[in-house]
Design a protein that fits this description.
By secondary structure, this protein is mainly alpha-helical. The chain is built from 13 helices and no strands. The protein is globular. The C terminus is likely disordered.
Length: 302
């Protein structure tokens, strides 16, 4: 393995680990701060970080805030809904459930590429779609069985996550088109800024005022996760192929499962244990395998 390849793998693994811990951190944060405030805080800090950088380094990039392309506005709204949908899904269900179901996003993106960009459907993709579909159905059925007395919360959480996955696929489709003519980080600044503005009326600032330093640290981690994870992901593309990155990043639900298993063994009181049956884990593996097959082939062609 060459030094550049090693660097690319480490960068992609950083993204995977950050996203693997993200759902767990969101679940913990949801016990103290409401979803809308958390989402607003994450977008606001990410926007302010990029805005400050461009203000002092590349002021011309701020022009995108004045006259953004229409589809950039749609992409920002879609990512805003994605963040809220995933946050609500984690709150109603669990980190593991959310991580499995949100894999619908990359699958939908691949489907959009076939429909919108007329990309050729390969045999590997067909197998991936079938495997992922079977996995999603089995996972939902198994989890519904284990959620005795909590079926309503589980179904509500699933609907939030599925809507977030759809929203992410819309964001990704437009982002793919826009990145050909616009600076990626300048677009990210707008994409973070618009939801931050829209979620501000729903944010509960009085809750933030009562937080202890530990809770503030958790919120700052959630905000930094957005900047660092996407930053390392973008840097990884400079060193290794996109399909390799896709496989590495697909590890993030596995990281969530392992971390939650360790926390359950430690009997921690600050996060409820996962309630996933062995059949549910098998279904989750099918979902991840199918998603990797679909995304890997697609990105090779990109």
């Amino acid at each position: 393995m060459t030094p550049n390849t090693t660097k690319g793998v480490l960068l992609a693994m950083t993204t995977a680990f950050l996203w693997g811990f993200l759902a767990i951190a969101l679940k913990v944060a949801s016990t103290m701060v409401d979803s809308y405030t958390i989402v607003w805080f994450r977008f606001t800090i990410a926007f302010l970080a990029l805005f400050s950088f461009f203000l002092f380094r590349k002021r011309e990039m701020l022009r995108i805030l004045i006259k953004p392309p229409f589809i950039l506005v749609v992409a920002a709204l879609a990512l805003g809904w994605n963040y809220l949908g995933f946050m609500q899904g984690v709150s109603y269900t669990s980190p593991g459930n959310a991580q499995v179901i949100i894999q619908l996003g990359p699958v939908l993106l691949a489907l959009a590429g076939i429909i919108i960009y007329k990309e050729k459907l390969s045999r590997r993709q067909i197998i991936g779609f079938v495997v992922a579909s079977v996995g999603f159905l089995l996972f939902y059925r198994q989890q519904l069985i284990t959620m005795l007395g909590k079926e309503a919360d589980f179904n509500t959480g699933v609907l939030w996550i599925v809507s977030g996955a759809f929203a992410w696929s819309i964001y990704a489709v437009f982002q793919k088109k826009l990145v050909q003519t616009h600076d990626a980080q300048a677009m990210n600044m707008f994409i973070y800024g618009l939801p931050a503005l829209l979620f501000m009326p729903a944010a509960k600032f009085d809750h933030l005022a009562t937080l202890t330093p530990g809770w503030w640290f958790l919120l700052i981690f959630l905000a930094a996760n957005t900047l660092i994870a996407y930053g390392t992901l973008g840097a990884a593309f400079k060193y290794i192929e996109a399909n390799k990155i896709s496989i590495i990043v697909a590890m993030n639900p596995i990281i969530t499962f392992i971390t939650m298993a360790i926390l359950s063994e430690q009997h921690v009181s600050w996060i409820p244990p996962e309630n996933i049956s062995p059949q549910g884990y098998l279904a989750a593996i099918l979902v991840l395998t199918g998603a990797v097959l679909v995304v890997k082939r697609k990105r090779i062609k990109d």
